[in-house]
## 1
Amino acid sequence: MPWLQLRINSSRTQAEQIEDLLLESGAVSVTYEDNADEPILEPALGETPLWQQTRITGLFDASSNTDIISNTITQALKVPALDYHWELLEDKDWEREWMKHYHPIQCGKRLWICPSWLIPPHPECINLLLDPGLAFGTGTHPTTFLCLQWLDSIKLEGKTVTDYGCGSGILAIASLLLGAATATCVDIDPQALTATADNAQRNGLDPELTPVFLPDQVPEIATDLVIANILAGPLVALAPKLAALTKPGGLLCLSGIIESQANDVMDSYQSWFDFDPPTCNEQWVRLTAIKR
C-alpha cells in the first residue's frame, strides 16, 4: 500500500518535540536528516548529536488525515508558518530497491567486494562477500576503500593482523583472503563483533582465524599489522595501545580521518612510527607507517 510522508524543516532545539508530536499523531517511523550540509564527523561516545538545521520526516498510513495532523503540530509548536510538506510515497518492494544501490567494488588489482546476492563479475579474483548491515564497513565509504586498496597492495602471506574498530569485519576478512594467517577483531559494539563473525562465516573462514574481542578483553599480543579505521579523536587516545599491539618492524594503517586532522594524528604516533606520505580520497585520509 502507499504511504504518506510529512517532511518538516526545523532546528535542533525543536527536533525532539516534533518527533514526539509525529508519533502521537500516528507516525509509524520518524527520521532525522541534515538540512544544511553540516556533517557531524566525530560525536562523543554515547552522544546522538543533531544538526542545527534538521529535517524531520514522519511516515504515515495513506488514510491519515493530513489537515488534522498538520494543524495539531502547528498549534503545539506555536509556529504560525511551519515549514512542512506532505508527499505520497509509492509502495515498492523495498528490499529489492535497497539491493539496487549495492554493486561489486574493485579495491586494487586483486580484491573485489561483492554483495552476496550477486555473482562476482571476476570469479578468478579475490571476492569478499559482504551485505550492508548494522555494522560500519561495506567498502563504499572512502575510509574503508582506502584501507582495502592498501591491503591489496602489500604482502600479507602468513602475517598476523589486528583490526581495531572492526565494524563489519571487512578489513580483517580482506586481510585473511589476501593471505594473512590470523586477524584479531576488536570493537566497542557487540553488534559489530556479531557482524564480523557472521561475515567471516559467509566467506568460508574458520572462526578461529577471526577471534573477536571487546577492547578490555584484547590479548596483549603484538601483531605484524594493525589497522584502525575509526575517528581521529579515538585514534589519538589509542596511540599507546595501538603501538603496543604492533610488532617492531610491523605496519600501521589508520583511517577515518579528515585532511585537517592528519597532522594531529601523526604527531600522536611519532614516538613509535615513521609515516608514509598521506593518501587522500575526497576529504578523507589514510595514514600508513612502519614501527621502529
## 2
Amino acid sequence: MEVRKAVIPAAGFGTRFLPATKAQPKEMLVVVDKPLIQYSVEEAVQAGLKKIGLIISRRKETIPDHFDETPELENFLEEKKKIELLEEVRRISHLADFCYIRQRQALGLGHAILMSEDFVGQEPFAVLLPDDIFDCPVPCIKQLIEVFREKKATVIVLQRVDEDGMNKYGIIKPKPISDRLFQVEELVEKPGPAKAFSDLAVIGRYVFTPEIFEMIRRTPPDKRGEIQITDAIQLLLEKQPVYGLLFEGRRYDAGDKFGFLQATVELALKRKEFRERFLRFLQEVFSQEEVNF
C-alpha cells in the first residue's frame, strides 16, 4: 500500500522559545519568510503527500488561518498589482487537503500521533515534526517513503550525533544493511553516552505502518506523564521489523534557539534575491567582532 497521508504534530507549548511563544505558536515562528510549519507541509507535498493531518491545541488558531484562503488580502494584493505576492498567498492555501485534529492535553508525541488514528485509518502514513527543517536534494520524507516501498515496514530517519546528542534523542542499536540503511534491533530514549548503543539518533521524520497505533495504546506514560513514540517503536519491534535511514542532506534543529539561528542564516544565504547583500552584512559583522576582540 502506498503512503498517501502525512501527520504533523503541532500542539506543544513551545517553552524553549518563550517569551516569543507566549501568544503565538512556535510552529508559526518565521525562518526567513516562512513559518516553521510551512517547511514541513511543503516537504510532505513535494513527496506527493496531499492529505495532511495537523495536530493542534487550543492556542493554535493561527495555523489553520495561515493555510486558509484570505479573500480580503487577495483582493488588496490584486488591486495593488502585487501579482507575485498574490500568487504565493493563493499557493499556500491550496498546498494540500488539510485536516485539523485537536489534542486537548499535552501528553507527549506518542499521544499526539495517536490522535490522528481516525484520519489515517488502516494505512501507512508519514509523520513530520515541524521543529526540524530538512534541506535535501530529495525531500527527506520521500527518502523514507522509497525505503518503505521496498521493505513494507516502518522507517525512521537517522542522524549521527555527538555525546550531547545522546542525551537529547532516542538512540538505536543498529544492524547494518548498507552504508545508509540499518535494521533497528533496539531503541532507547535519551540514554546518555554511557548507555548509548551507537551514535545513530532518531530525529523528526517517520513512516509508520498502522500497527503503531496499537503500540502507542500499549505504551505506559513516562515519569512526566507523557507517551514517548520511541517507547511505542520499541514495542513495535516485537511484532515487525523497523528500519532506520541516514538521510542525505542538511537538517536544522529549529526547535532549538541556536539551530533556529543556523537555519535562518544558511537558508537566507540560499536566496538569490538578497544573498550578496546579506553576505556582505555578515562579513561586516565579523570584521567588527574581530576589532572588538
